[in-house]
Amino acid sequence: MKNRKLLTDIFTVVLMVSIVLVLLAYLNVFPGTVQDEGSASYIVLSYISVPLALISVALIDLVFPLIDNRAMLKENKFKVKAGVKIALFAAAVIFGVLFFMTDALATAITNDFVGVAIFVALYIAQFCINLDPKPEPVEEKVEEADVYAQYDEDTDDEE
Hints:
It is built from five helices and no strands. The protein is an all-alpha fold. It is elongated and about 70 Å long.
């Protein structure tokens, strides 16, 4: 992908802005509260900041690496890594939506700390799977003139 670095930087900024909007919504900077459906805080959180964050993370962590490494999709190891990463990301998103946005899991998980811990564990697990290949180590080539120059410097110090 030709402009991956630029697109990654752009969506990283979008992700940071959406995180700031989430924090502002939870700090009641916008009119209304997060729990009141139809209030500005609820709209900013539910329809603007969280979807932007999810789209940005999906593009940065899943889509761009898959497009860049589509030649590696022929390898079974890469397919398994990509499948596990996609499944963990989907599980984190579904759990997050059900727990934070709809309160559908409120009866099953009464402790907010446990719910946040499950979401963070799922997200960090998928984040630890890297779809980009490891870069090859760069060997430094030393030219003969550099070796002789270094030897000359060492002999000058001894005199």
